[in-house]
Amino acid sequence: MKVSILLLGLGQLLLLVSKKSSTAIRVHCRDVERIHEDHIHYCCKHPDGHNDVTEQCAKQTKFKLPSRDEEAIEDLTVDHVMTGTCFAKCVFDHYNFMDNDKLNMTAVRNHYQTTYKEDPEYVKEMISAFNLCHSKSEDATAEFLSTSIVRAFSSSAYSCKPMPSVVLACVIHRFFHNCPRNRWSNTTECVETLAFSKKCKDVLTTM
Ligand SMILES: *[C@@H]1O[C@H](CO)[C@@H](O)[C@H](O)[C@H]1NC(C)=O
Ligand SMILES: *[C@@H]1O[C@H](CO)[C@@H](O)[C@H](O)[C@H]1NC(C)=O
């Protein structure tokens, strides 16, 4: 009897200790300024560097890319992409991703499989993100568009059809949300961002 009480006590103590260590990062959801959403692209490894297509489309549509070395679509945040409907349309048109108002998944698959052969995990993640953002396009898009920040943006006047930027924004969201653990960068900023996004849903649009 005495032994089991002692064990129970030890169990509670262990629980207490493990609880304490899991709250090592303190997260305050109002503390948004501390979290730089535009740095999220440093956190999940993806092919980076110069990209002719995004650069040309950015010039053509006066869309601002983060920098010359940050021209991958994953270098953009969700709300940034939502302001660039013509940019997204230009990129999708270039790759022939759109077939009227629908995403052509054959074209998407071909593009990723041929361009990023050397990184099959990335190809798989991207195709799965596109697939989800298009196949469930009604559900996923509706759910996605209902997040508060996106809603604020979608009320502003569009100069191009919004579908490509909605799909692109959804893909970016999915990509970071499903980032495999081994591709997630273990820096303080990334660990904090992840903890923040888990606790404060709907504050960061990209996560
Ligand atoms: C979809 O893309 C593929 C590959 O680029 C192309 O062969 C096919 O004609 C396209 N389908 C439609 C319906 O446009
Ligand atoms: C991340 O970094 C921390 C502290 O530097 C270390 O304790 C932890 O094991 C690392 N985690 C991974 C998954 O590498």
UniProtKB/TrEMBL annotation:
<dbReference type="InterPro" id="IPR036728">
    <property type="entry name" value="PBP_GOBP_sf"/>
</dbReference>
<dbReference type="Pfam" id="PF22651">
    <property type="entry name" value="OBP47_like"/>
</dbReference>
<dbReference type="InterPro" id="IPR054577">
    <property type="entry name" value="OBP47-like_dom"/>
</dbReference>
<protein>
    <submittedName>
        <fullName>General odorant-binding protein 68</fullName>
    </submittedName>
</protein>
<keyword id="KW-0732">Signal</keyword>
<comment type="similarity">
    <text>Belongs to the PBP/GOBP family.</text>
</comment>
<dbReference type="GO" id="GO:0005549">
    <property type="term" value="F:odorant binding"/>
</dbReference>
<dbReference type="InterPro" id="IPR052295">
    <property type="entry name" value="Odorant-binding_protein"/>
</dbReference>
<feature type="signal peptide">
    <location>
        <begin position="1"/>
        <end position="24"/>
    </location>
</feature>
<feature type="domain" description="OBP47-like">
    <location>
        <begin position="74"/>
        <end position="191"/>
    </location>
</feature>
<keyword id="KW-0964">Secreted</keyword>
<dbReference type="GO" id="GO:0005576">
    <property type="term" value="C:extracellular region"/>
</dbReference>
